[in-house]
């Protein structure tokens, strides 16, 4: 046994190449014997390193799957909130346009100052529980920001905030989907690597047993 084959090789599981979010690309083992360090090298350390790397990819897969589900629930809520705030804005702007189209300035002032009929709608109190409400004309809305925090915003500022949050959520969702596809490809590579190393070791052990068998047994079989 040479000195090089008895030395534990440096195990490189992942490449320096990474995806845009910094997830490393798995290294495909094309030549198992060279990778493990020679025909007499032990494979236990290599198999353990492969399993550890596979476990890390699975952990990332679990976290990203949870993030994706959370975003897929969050984005429709943001869209509904944005749609409602835009409805309130359009309602106010519609009354202003109606007042500006009146020829008599006195009538215009009357329309602008007249209290419009409130809008009847329903809002969600909890899952499957809704209540009726009347919405009066307003230039201010209250938005939940999370962690039991609610702040008031003027309608234009609220629309700008919601649009930015929607854009950020869509970007994060797209990145999460892309990362999940990338990670699952790396998991497949790791599983193939593990199978190749394991099968190579099984084949090597079988060949060793064949060489160690007495010549008489071999000739008897033939």
From TrEMBL:
Coiled-coil features, chain-numbered ranges: 159-186
GO CC annotation terms, alphabetical: cytoplasm; prefoldin complex
Keywords for the protein's UniProt record, in alphabetical order: Chaperone, Coiled coil
Transmembrane segments: none
GO biological process terms, semicolon-separated: microtubule-based process; protein folding; tubulin complex assembly
Keyword Transport: no
Region Disordered: start-end pairs: 94-114
Keyword Coiled coil included in the entry's annotation: yes
InterPro entries, alphabetized: PFD3 (IPR016655), Prefoldin (IPR009053), Prefoldin_subunit_alpha (IPR004127)
GO function term, MF aspect, one: tubulin binding
Pfam families with a match to the protein in the record: Prefoldin
The protein's assembly and partners: Heterohexamer of two PFD-alpha type and four PFD-beta type subunits.
Functional note: Binds specifically to cytosolic chaperonin (c-CPN) and transfers target proteins to it. Binds to nascent polypeptide chain and promotes folding in an environment in which there are many competing pathways for nonnative proteins.
Identification of the protein by name: Prefoldin subunit 3
Organism: Multifurca ochricompacta
């Amino acid at each position: 046994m040479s000195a090089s084959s008895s030395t534990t090789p440096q195990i490189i599981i992942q490449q320096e190449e990474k995806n845009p979010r910094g997830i490393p690309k798995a290294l495909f083992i094309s030549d198992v014997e060279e990778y493990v360090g020679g025909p007499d090298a032990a494979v236990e350390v290599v198999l353990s390193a492969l399993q550890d790397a596979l476990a890390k990819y699975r952990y990332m897969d679990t976290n990203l799957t949870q993030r994706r589900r959370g975003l897929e629930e969050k984005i429709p809520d943001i869209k509904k909130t944005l749609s409602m705030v835009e409805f309130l804005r359009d309602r106010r702007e519609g009354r202003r346009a109606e007042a500006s189209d009146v020829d008599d300035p006195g009538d215009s002032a009357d329309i602008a100052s007249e209290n419009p009929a409130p809008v009847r709608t329903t809002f969600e109190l909890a899952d499957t529980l809704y209540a009726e409400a009347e919405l009066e004309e307003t230039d201010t809305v209250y938005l939940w920001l999370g962690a039991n925090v609610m702040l008031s915003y003027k309608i234009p500022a609220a629309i700008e905030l919601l649009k930015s949050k929607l854009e950020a959520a869509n970007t994060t969702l797209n990145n999460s989907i892309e990362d999940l596809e990338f990670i699952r490809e790396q998991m497949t590579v790791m599983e193939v690597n593990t199978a190749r190393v394991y099968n190579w070791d099984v084949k090597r052990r079988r060949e060793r047993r064949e060489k160690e068998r007495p010549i008489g047994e071999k000739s008897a079989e033939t």
